[in-house]
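Data deposition worksheet. Section B asks for the primary sequence of the deposited chain exactly as it was used as input, without tags or linkers unless they were present during the calculation. Section C holds the resulting structure in token form. Section D is free text for depositor observations; keep each observation to a single sentence. Incomplete worksheets are returned to the depositor.
Section A, Depositor: J.P.
Section B:
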Amino acid sequence: MRQSHAQPVFFSDAGVAPSESLISNSSLFDAGRPIDGLFVYPTEVTRDTATIRLAGSNLAAVNSVRVRKKGSNEAWHIAKRPRGMLLTRGVINLHLGSEGEFALPEPLAPNTRYAFEVETSLGVAEGSFLTTPPAETDVRFLVYGDNRTDAVSHRSVVEAMLKRPRDLLLHTGDYVEVGPRNQDWTVFFALERELLANRYLVGAVGNHELIDPVGANYIKYLAPEGSDPTSLHVERRGFVRAVRWGRAHIFLLAGMDDGGESDERIWLEKELDRSIEDSPGAFRIVALHHSPWSSGPHGNNRKLAAAGVVDLLVKKRVDVIFAGHDHIYERGSARGIAYVVTGGGGAPLYAVKKRIPEAERVESTHHFLDVEITDGKLTYEAVRDDLSTIETCVLEKGKGAFSCDGAPARIPEPEPTKITPVAKEPAKSGYDPVFLVFGGIFALGLGMTFASRRRRKKRRKKDLPEKRETDKNPRP
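Section C:
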């Protein structure tokens, strides 16, 4: 895999104004960051550990961190400016556990909410996280994707999501417009600051993050610490991951248009087998950017199917696929797998000209999903950014298709306010270019031959009367 030429630098706010295509309202941008140039969010959350990740241009202002159980007045204090507060590719990772430099006086407890405070010379940044719930625990989480390009619509979706207090965010990719462009990530974190500060975000990589072939900024800000996209070990590259959250077993794939590498399929099969053996009743959820099935302009992910990934998901009886890439809401089922395309996180919407046979509901609208998993049942509400409900659907374990009794489709269906058509390739003639060239030359030569014969024929007709007159009056 080729190394990226993008420099893994800090966010740069000073002297760099976000382009109008990214954000059109400076007050909206400023509203997302109470501490200038510093974004704090939990990541790599497990039953008894967590990592607090700090990113931004003001990392040098960080002094200390305090952690405490939510609602408790007793705080665990991490010493002022500990040695571990070193910059790793433009971020600070504070790993909280029972060992290491940030060892806590007692282990973190499962399914428990902890609050943290980051003291800086500019103020205090606050956040919280829930440690991983044990297996067989009912859980709720939000699913969304495709935030890029339109900051106003992106913020509208975020504000709607903030009204649903969940502990986990599942993202289907395309967080930013240009992955290597640092100011795009500044905008992303500014718009989602409150959302990310109190929720654990896990998400698939999208094609816009991979404009840089190794996805350096995605790895830096969203992948587990220490990920290396050039590693020979697939699980260390940062693009695939298995996350267990109560009754939900989530498998993140890097399944864009290349269908994935063979070692990724081997990793996926092993993780699915392990999940089936450990928790037969868990809901197995695959999250990736380009869905195997879609009515949007990008269509079905044919290369993913050709690579055998879809056959593997069918064989292992995956319950549901959450994807994005097409900026629409779509629900359907195929080959015993339920799927949802949820690419309405703020990016310009796509028009849908034809619904594929596998699709059961399609709407071009900004939205997110509010998911709940209980014993043997997955329920979700598809919510527009104005908080109206698209529909509510239920998937029973092993059924392979949703049953929905939500609000009926709007009649007439509203035209999307922003549509970005996908450019189509010019139609191909189907003929060999060499054949066309030589065919043209042959036609030109044939035309010239006919024209020459016609001119000779006209001259013969003109000369014929003179010959006859000469025959009647021969010279003496």
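Section D:
Confidence is low (pLDDT under 50) at residues 1-33, 407-438, 467-472.
The domain at 26-130 is CATH 2.60.40.10 (Immunoglobulin-like).
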